[in-house]
Write a structure and sequence with these properties.
The structure is a single chain. This protein is mainly α. The chain has ten helices and three strands, in the order H-H-H-H-H-H-H-H-H-E-E-H-E. It has a three-stranded antiparallel sheet with strand order 2-1-3, covered by helices on one side.
Length: 209
């Protein structure tokens, strides 16, 4: 089941969603037959991510809610945090900012000691506050998130932006980064934390759109 899950995640990163869905379902069925309760909860999380990337939001929400129910019943704090993150991302996409902020609080409270979850929960809270028009809170959360991200190795930062892309959380303004003749469209956060540190030559401009 672990190999199937890893392959499903690779296909998800490649945006081969149909293949990822079938692999994730196969992994879940195997875990159910083996009585692997923790694995079944993790499979619910992966299935929800596949549905999210496929824009099947009702299916994503249904699967994540079922996974959260199972994780809560079994006291799986880290899985609860992961699933609250997904449900928060769904709420944000639906414009339900109060729900998104409530889920973000659950992520940060239950994801204690798990840096990735703490950072993603912060980003969810910041995005929800900004969407709700609470610019003061959004700015404070953004500053905290940026400081913590700056302290990570570049490879880890790239990974985190990959996770954010899956969840739709890279919500900073769009910009254009121009290095010599190479012009890239990106977000301000990505430009500052990923693009610019990776360049070995001088940057001519970073222009907001």
């Amino acid at each position: 089941s672990m190999a199937l899950t890893q392959l499903a995640e690779i296909r998800l990163d490649q945006r081969r969603n149909d293949e990822a869905l079938e692999l994730a379902k196969e992994a879940m069925a195997l875990r159910q037959r083996c009585g692997d309760e923790r694995g079944v909860v993790a499979s619910h999380r992966l299935l929800a991510e596949v549905h999210l990337q496929s824009h099947a939001l009702p299916d994503a929400r249904r699967v994540a809610a079922r996974g959260l129910e199972m994780a809560t019943r079994r006291g799986m704090a880290s899985e609860q945090a992961h699933l609250h993150l997904l449900l928060g991302a769904f709420s944000l996409r639906a414009g339900k900012t109060s729900e998104a902020r409530a889920h973000a609080e659950q992520v940060t409270s239950r994801g204690t000691g798990l840096l990735d979850l703490q950072l993603l929960g912060l980003k969810l809270a910041q995005s929800a506050a900004l969407r709700a028009g609470d610019r003061e809170t959004a700015g404070r959360l953004a500053d905290t998130w940026f400081r913590r991200m700056e302290a990570l190795p570049l490879a880890r930062v790239r990974y985190m932006f990959g996770r954010m892309a899956r969840l739709g959380l890279d919500t900073s303004r769009r910009c254009v980064v121009r290095v010599n003749q190479d012009v890239q469209s990106t977000t301000l956060d990505h430009a500052a934390l990923v693009d610019l540190p990776a360049f070995d030559v001088a940057v001519d401009t970073v222009r907001r759109r």
